[in-house]
Design a protein that fits this description.
The protein starts with a helix and ends with a helix. It folds into two domains: 191 residues, Periplasmic binding protein-like II (D-Maltodextrin-Binding Protein, domain 2), CATH 3.40.190; 209 residues, 3-Layer(aba) Sandwich (D-Maltodextrin-Binding Protein, domain 2), CATH 3.40.190.10. The strands form four sheets. Strands 8-9-7-10 form a four-stranded mixed β-sheet. A three-stranded antiparallel β-sheet has the order 3-11-6. The chain is an alpha+beta fold and 418 residues long. The radius of gyration is 22 Å and the shape is globular. The longest helix has 17 residues. It has 19 helices and eleven strands.
Length: 418
C-alpha cells in the first residue's frame, strides 16, 4: 500500500522531477512518525525535485514548545515547517504564515470543516490538518449482546446499561468489573473529558469563539454533577487518578463495559495481550440532552509554515503535500492514523485497516474544540484552572454550581490580564 501511494504521488509529476531551482527546506515531525515523514519527503522530492530535511521532535511533544518559542522569537530561518498540536495553534498564530491563498481552496475543502476551522484564527489559515483524533466510546459488544442492550445514545442510557451489566457480571463471579472507565485525573485529559460532557449537555466549551467566558451555566454544572455520581457507582474511585493509559489498562484487561478514549485504542485492544480481542465496538460519545450533538474532544495535528521561512512558497507546497489525500491515506493504512480528509472514510483500503471509521464519521464531524484559538498563549493557564476546578468537583470538595461560578470569575480576571 505504501509503495502504491508513493508511486501515485510520483506519477502526478509525470515520473520526473525538475532539478532546476531545486530548494531545500527543514521540517519538524513527530518522533513516532519519523520514518513516515521521511518517506513522504522522498515522494515530494520525486515529484518536485525539492528536498525536505526532517527533524525529529522530542519524545514528549510538549517539550517542543520551548524549542519552537526560541526559534520563532529569534525569527530563525533554520526551520520552515512546524508540526503542531491543535492547542498550540493559538499560541503560535502570530508566527505562522497565512496559508489561505497558498493552499488551493479545493484542497482545503477536502478536510472536515471542524478540523480546518480550528486552524482559522484572526482571519488567517495558520496550518493544515495532517490527521485527527476525537474522543470516542469503546464498549464490550459481546456484553451488550449478552444482556440484550443496544449502544446507548445518551449518558443516562450509558450509566443505566453500565450499572446493570456491571452488577450482573459481578454476580456471575467477575468481581473486578466496572461499568465505565474514563479519565478524571487532574490534567489536560480531564479538560477533554469534561468539555465532552458539558458540550453534549448544551453547556458550551468554557470560552466562546468570540472570547466570552461561558462556563458558569446550569447545563455545565448539571453535566459534571452527573459524572460525579458515577464515581463509586459505575466507575472506581481510582478514576480520579486515571489518565488514558490507566483507564485503557482496565478496559483491555476485561474489567470495564464502556471506555472513553482516543481512536488508538482500537489498535491496542486488538493486539496480543488484550483480553478483549474481537469483543470491542466503537461509537460516538453519548449526548447529555435531546437535541444536542455528540461532542468528542477534537485532537488533530497540523503542519504550518514559519512566518520567517526564507522559502515560504516551497514550504507551503510541502505542507499541502504531506496533508494531502495520498499521504493521509498512506498514514491511515500504514500507521492507523485517522485522516482529516472526508473522502477517505469510505476508502476500502483505509476501512480495511480502521473499520470503525465508516460508522463513526459523524463523530469526527461534530467534535468539540478546546478554546485554544482565542486564548492563545494563555490556553495552558485556562485549561489548568478548568481541570483543577473540575477535579475538585468530582472528588467531592466543591459543588459544581459554586465551582463554575468561581471559575468563571477567575477566567474573567485572566482575560482582563491578557
Amino acid at each position: 500500500m505504501l509503495k502504491k501511494c508513493l508511486a501515485a504521488a510520483a506519477a502526478v509529476a509525470g515520473l520526473w522531477a525538475s532539478t532546476a531551482h531545486a530548494e531545500t527546506i527543514s521540517a519538524f515531525c513527530s518522533p513516532t512518525e519519523f520514518e513516515l515523514c521521511t518517506k513522504v519527503a522522498d515522494a515530494w522530492k520525486a515529484k518536485t525535485g525539492n528536498e525536505a530535511k526532517i527533524n525529529k521532535m522530542p519524545a514528549l511533544l510538549d517539550d517542543a514548545i520551548p524549542l519552537y518559542q526560541q526559534l520563532l522569537a529569534a525569527k530563525s530561518k533554520d526551520v520552515d515547517v512546524l508540526f503542531l498540536d491543535v492547542i498550540w495553534l493559538g499560541m503560535f498564530k502570530a508566527n505562522l504564515l497565512d496559508l489561505k491563498t497558498m493552499v488551493p481552496q479545493a484542497d482545503q475543502d477536502k478536510h472536515f470543516a471542524s478540523t480546518l476551522n480550528a486552524a482559522k484564527l484572526d482571519g488567517n489559515l495558520v496550518a493544515m490538518p495532517a490527521y485527527m483524533d476525537v474522543g470516542l466510546m469503546f464498549y464490550r459488544k459481546d456484553l451488550l449482546e449478552k444482556y440484550g442492550k443496544q449502544p446507548p445514545k445518551t449518558w443516562d442510557e450509558l450509566a443505566s446499561a453500565a450499572k446493570e451489566i456491571q452488577d450482573k457480571e459481578r454476580a456471575d463471579g467477575h468481581d473486578k468489573m466496572w461499568g465505565y472507565a474514563w479519565q478524571a485525573k487532574s490534567y489536560e485529559g480531564l479538560t477533554c473529558d469534561a468539555i465532552e460532557l458539558i458540550a453534549s449537555n448544551g453547556g458550551g466549551t468554557i470560552i466562546s469563539d468570540d472570547g466570552k467566558v461561558t462556563i458558569d451555566n446550569a447545563d455545565a454544572a448539571e453535566a459534571i454533577k452527573k459524572a460525579k455520581g458515577w464515581i463509586g457507582s459505575i466507575s472506581p474511585e481510582g478514576v480520579l487518578n486515571y489518565d488514558e493509559e490507566a483507564s485503557r489498562a482496565v478496559f483491555e484487561s476485561g474489567d470495564a463495559v464502556f471506555h472513553r478514549n482516543w481512536p488508538y485504542v482500537w489498535g491496542t485492544s486488538h493486539k496480543e495481550g488484550s483480553a478483549i480481542i474481537d469483543k470491542v465496538g466503537v461509537m460516538p460519545l453519548p449526548v447529555g440532552k435531546d437535541g444536542q450533538k455528540s461532542s468528542g474532544c477534537l485532537g488533530p495535528m497540523y503542519y504550518g509554515v514559519s512566518k520567517y521561512s526564507a522559502k515560504p512558497q516551497v514550504a507551503a507546497d510541502f505542507v499541502n503535500f504531506i496533508t494531502g489525500t495520498d499521504m493521509q491515506k498512506m498514514r491511515a493504512v500504514e500507521a492507523t492514523l485517522n485522516p482529516s480528509i472526508q473522502s477517505l472514510y469510505s476508502d476500502p483500503e483505509v476501512l480495511d485497516k480502521i473499520p470503525f471509521l465508516k460508522d463513526n464519521q459523524q463523530a469526527f464531524a461534530d467534535s468539540a474544540v478546546r478554546p485554544s484559538g482565542y486564548t492563545g498563549t494563555s490556553y495552558n493557564r485556562v485549561s489548568q484552572a478548568f481541570y483543577r476546578s473540575v477535579h475538585d468537583m468530582l472528588s467531592g470538595s466543591t459543588d459544581p454550581k459554586d465551582g463554575f461560578a468561581s471559575l468563571g470569575k477567575r477566567l474573567e480576571k485572566l482575560k482582563e490580564s491578557r
